[in-house]
Amino acid sequence: MNTKLLKKIGWFSLISLGIFITVISVHIYMVTRPKPLDPNALAMARIDIKNDIKKEDAEKITTWLYQQKGIDHVLVNPDSKIAVFSFYPARVNANDIVMNFKKSFPYQAERFMPSAEEMAKGCPVAPTSTSYKVVNFFKNL
């Protein structure tokens, strides 16, 4: 091959690589930057109740949770003593709901918060992966 063709291929490869790196960098920045809270976004929270509860108690808890501002859907299982609810984070804080729950009912209850280990298991991007390191690099810019 002649040198002109090799130079053209080299320049084309460098320009293509530069464009690719620029596009992927902009994409990662756009995806990882902080976003304003979406008023239509839903989140879930769980309350673990330490006391035994009956079906009637579960119905009272369900009714009470539905009456709270920002609650979308509620499920209370008297067998597992767990209440799960979806809510709008833009309207209400789940910690406030749990605090009001503790004040309104005579049950010992805690909001379930997964440990760091449980969170790591649930995340498809492990902290040791290259993808995680690249995302963290751009987050810390």
Concise summary:
It contains 5 helices and 4 strands, in the order αβαββαβαα. The chain is of the alpha+beta class and 141 residues long.
Report on this model:
With 141 residues, the protein is of the alpha+beta class. It is 50% helix and 16% strand. It has helices at residues 3-32, 55-67, 94-104, 116-122, 130-139; strands at 43-49, 71-77, 82-87, 109-111. The mean pLDDT is 88.
Task: Tag the structure with descriptive keywords.
50% helix; single chain; 4-stranded antiparallel β-sheet; 5 helices; alpha+beta; 4 strands
In spatial order, strands of the major sheet run 2-3-1-4
Helix content: 40-55%
Which band does the percent of strand residues land in? 15-25%
Helix segment count? 5
Helix/strand-derived category reads alpha+beta
Overall shape: elongated
Biggest sheet character:
4 strands, antiparallel
Residue runs with pLDDT of under 50 for 5 or more positions: none
> Mean pLDDT, rounded to whole units?
88
Give the terminus-to-terminus CA distance: 44 Å
Please state the CA-atom Rg, rounded to the nearest Å.
25 Å
Please provide the count of β strands: 4
Order of helices and strands: HEHEEHEHH
